[in-house]
Write a structure and sequence with these properties.
disordered N terminus; 336 residues; eight-stranded mixed sheet; single chain; alpha/beta; globular; disordered C terminus; two-stranded antiparallel sheet
């Protein structure tokens, strides 16, 4: 319904009637914490298709993956992601109970700076932008210049978990709060064809309204928490000991603090994402089915990368309808 409004032919007429130029292609990498490792697989598959990207826009974890790709550091990031275990993930978290976030983020910053050094966004070979949220005003901030490391850190600074990041005098939080899949940013930067990757599409469905939940056999008090909630808090159960579907006297106990926080943020992000995509639809929306992976399960990179590749393979035909591929053999189809 919405996609038709943006559908165009694959090339645009050149000024003066010369050879048609290739339409400018933008890639949008959505938010989703650990599930964002699937973006790595998606980018690998897009490369295999022969897709040349002119614009990359990311929100939260999408900023990390997209920024590393634009900087030519995707190999480094993939090796790091695949090396993670539960123990190594916990070793990267510097807990702080005196600041504005549970994790100071200095250890992660050190790793990012070691890999990305002093790279600046304006010097990247691909036009890049990161989305963040300003504390106080709630403004949506587009980071298009400055240190790439600062933009990445600001864009993934999950409220209550990571401390906010100060950029150009503004304190910034996670971009998923205002624009989880920022198609609008790619359009504003001149992308004429936009491919968006959504990694939170199968978590909640459309969200029903339950008008009379009391006294019913399927009421929340008699149902265990969904597997996703258990997965999301599994890695950080050491932070707060609480219930994740456990039974107390035959009934489900209250969810832990982290389970409540993660699920609340998941729901918020899902609702905002649906609203924004309805108003700013991409030409191709790739739904990456990662709903069984929790937000903090960063140790499942192998599985997630494979899911990202699979999602692009399934969407390859639709992608070809909207963009011009650069490989001569691209029409033959994606690699087996």
């Amino acid at each position: 319904m919405f996609r038709a409004a943006y559908r165009r032919i694959d090339t645009e007429p050149a000024p003066g009637g010369g050879r048609p130029r290739r339409a400018k292609v933008g890639l949008v990498l959505g938010a989703g914490a650990a599930r964002g490792w699937s973006h790595i697989g998606a980018l690998r598959e897009l490369d295999a298709l022969g897709l040349k990207l002119d614009v990359i826009v990311g929100s939260s974890i999408g900023t990390l993956v997209g920024g590393c790709y634009a900087a030519g550091r995707l190999d480094m990031l993939e090796a790091f992601a695949r090396s993670l275990t539960r123990r190594r993930v916990l070793g990267l978290l510097d807990f702080s109970f005196t600041g504005s976030g549970l994790i100071g983020g200095q250890r992660l910053r050190t790793r990012l700076e070691a890999g990305l050094g002093g790279l600046r966004i304006e010097d990247l070979p691909i036009q890049f932008a990161a989305v963040a949220t300003e504390i106080g005003g709630g403004h949506e901030i587009w980071l298009r210049r400055g240190l790439l490391v600062d933009a990445i850190r600001a864009s993934y600074a999950l409220p209550g978990v990571f401390e906010p990041v100060k950029v150009d005098g503004r304190w910034l939080f996670d971009g998923a709060i205002v624009n989880p899949v920022p198609v609008s940013v790619a359009r504003a930067l001149g992308a004429e064809r936009v491919i968006a990757l959504n990694i939170s599409s199968d978590r909640f469905g459309r969200g029903a309204v339950i008008q009379d939940p009391f006294g019913r056999p399927d009421s929340p008090s008699s149902v265990e928490e969904p597997a996703q909630a258990q997965d999301s808090s599994g890695m950080i159960s050491r932070w707060w000991r609480g219930s994740n579907g456990a039974k107390v006297n035959g009934e489900s106990a209250a969810p832990s603090l982290m389970t409540s926080m993660v699920n609340a943020f998941d729901i918020l992000q899902d609702r905002i994402m649906r609203s924004r995509l309805a108003g700013d639809p991409p030409d191709t929306l790739v739904q990456v089915r990662v709903g069984k992976v929790g937000m903090f399960e960063f140790h499942r990179a192998d599985e997630l990368i494979a899911l990202g590749r699979e999602a692009i393979r399934k969407a390859a035909t639709e992608i070809r309808e909207h963009v011009e591929l650069t490989r001569a053999d691209a029409a033959a189809g994606p690699p087996a």
